[in-house]
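Lab notebook page, bench 4
Experiment: in silico fold of construct C2
Operator: M.H.
Input chain length: 335 residues
Purpose: comparison with the prior construct
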Amino acid sequence: MANIVKVQFHTAEKLYDFNAAGFELKPGDRVIVETDRGRSMAIVATPPTQVPDELVADSMKTILRKATPADLEAAERNRGREKETHVFCQAKIAERNLDMKLVKVEYVFDGSKAIFYFTADGRIDFRDLVKDLAQQFHTRIEMKQIGVRDEAKIVGGLGICGRELCCSSFLRDFAPVSVKMAKEQNLALNPIKISGQCGRLLCCLGYEFDTYCELRKGLPKCGKHLKCGAGEGEVVKVNTLARSFTLRTVDSRMLQLTAEDLLDDGAAGQATPPKETAPPPAPEKAAPAEKPAETKPRSSEADKTDKSGTTGRRRNRNRHRSHGKKKPDSPKETP
């Protein structure tokens, strides 16, 4: 059997499993562990748990030792160096006019590397800044860009509720939050009221979301038209926690009803069916129109013949008319 404990490197951060290796540990003890970035000081978060050896992963690391007074002094010296490094880095960022915000500086336990946490809207070319820092502090430099929610977790503060920020006190992981959660809880969709220090939606919107979804079962939505034993009307307000709603009847009465009232009437969530109307009579089909007789187009030669024939007939007619007229008598010669 192996003794497994969970440790954290900072408050409200992720928990990591380590083999206690026979050390008597309790929550709050400081220990020295080996990590991917070197030796670090961690805080025990849970009591040791007995786990069968076959269930222990081969890659699980072992706690090196409990922190000694010398280790605690070294950690305190690192805190002092972090403040000095933070001030120097801030000055260099302003000097080089870099569009970035320095959030925190952290030294690993043995002081062999300094990690700079910053936020920025896009990619930053900080190669010259790294050269300045390495030349000044003679240690390895790591620049780590983080998001605004991680910034709020590191910096900390007070929320609009007056309590310490959830992310910096007990919330270890960030769960997705959507506007739907605020709508389901009938909250005003005011960005100022539903946003946290980081400018994102409040993490606490998701704490009671599942409860609201469960309580809303059997309740009608606002704007729905219902017909039940108490009357017929439109739902104008829903109180999810009390599982009640307000119905405005057709005669302008305001009734306070509950989901149980709908169940008793057998009309839970049933909208009033629309009145059936007789379909309009189908228009009579008109008799199909007769197709006009097709006329063949006349050729140009026929047109010419017709035109010439017509002209000839007109000439003959005029000629006959001229023959029918009497010519005037010519004067007779006298002997």
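Observations: The radius of gyration is 47 Å. The first helix runs from residue 69 to 95.
Next step: discuss at group meeting.
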